[in-house]
Amino acid sequence: MASVEILDKALEVIREYPLCDSCLGRLFAQLGHGVENAERGIAIKTILHMTLVNDYRKGKDVVRDLTALAKVHKPTRRFLASVGIKVEEESCYICGGLLTEVEKYADAALPLLSEVDFNSFAVGTTIPREVLDRESQVVKKFLITTGESIKHEINRRIGKELLRHLTGKRVDKLRPNVVVRIDLVTGKASVERNPVLIGGVYLKLSRRVSQAKKFGDVKTTLTEKLAYVKDVFGGGEHVVHVSGREDSDARMLGTGRQLVVEVKQPVKYRGSVPPLKDDDVIFIPSTFTTREEVRRLKEKAKTDVKLYRALVLSERELSAEELNKLGELSGKTVTQLTPRRIKRLSPRKKRVRMVYELAWRLVSPHVFELYVRCQGGLYVKEFIHGDGGRTKPSVSEILNTYLEVLELDVLAVE
Ligand SMILES: [Zn+2]
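Above: inputs. Below: predicted complex with zinc ion.
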């Protein structure tokens, strides 16, 4: 866009609508970086003023254009007054003066922000509906394609103002710690505190720890064990997102399983989480992480390869030779109806998972140890005892005996 085009377009708009410096400059926001819209607006008005005054002196009939500009430009009002034409100042058609000192709205948020120890923030504002409507009316009428939205300018300017008062903070529109919400209709501000997400891995050494809910002889939960993470950040509550799950009576050994602790409503976004190590659970925290990582973890659980160890009791005596029949199950696809022990809304959902490899060792005539390497999501206990025929094929079916799983451990999540 040539400078003449900018001036022509600007004059066209000004003839019809009185616009403040910001609202006029914003129509050309995409032209020229590092200049605030108000500065752009002032520059355009100054050049229009110089051109029109020059034309006037040459005797051209530009009084109407000068009058239109004078409504929103003091030097032009003064010039016209000097030649006997009095023009009243008018308020901006789009913002009605809102943008003149929109920075003052930041004041309401500052005391709220001082209560939170955060690193990054974003600004969100509620702008009067009619202001947005009038803006889109002007943009459409003059086919403005070089502009910025008023919402964008307001959020940016309030953000800048906040930065002036807050040292060491930064604006992060994508993943802010806190979102400053300002309602320009009421002038009220609020601060939304986004959760802190901490990644890590855990090992479960006890057979009486469940992931989230207490039942039966479960003595504690992973969620309870990790409550101390919430306290590090002064959070209101916390949720543990785990990549897959194991039964409460199954141990989680080896290199552990990945999880993310989500701390809601924190008052601090800095802090280091110490590892946890007791008789039940080991938790090794890693880094701050993101919501996308939580989604990835949950998705990954479906495709992860898991290695299990089970200690199995057989109703009838087995020989080492008989156990060798289990080789047939390697590389098999297993079809499972939702186990009877799991109460679900759709109790007859079908699940299909791969069993890659099996290894076994007879411990005594009624007890054997079984290693199962399989796709994530396989109900391993059911794969062993068959769940009354609801899982096919199963170890029980192949060995033609009733089986009971005495112990189950997750040895590896690959
Ligand atoms: Zn305005």
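The mean pLDDT is 94.
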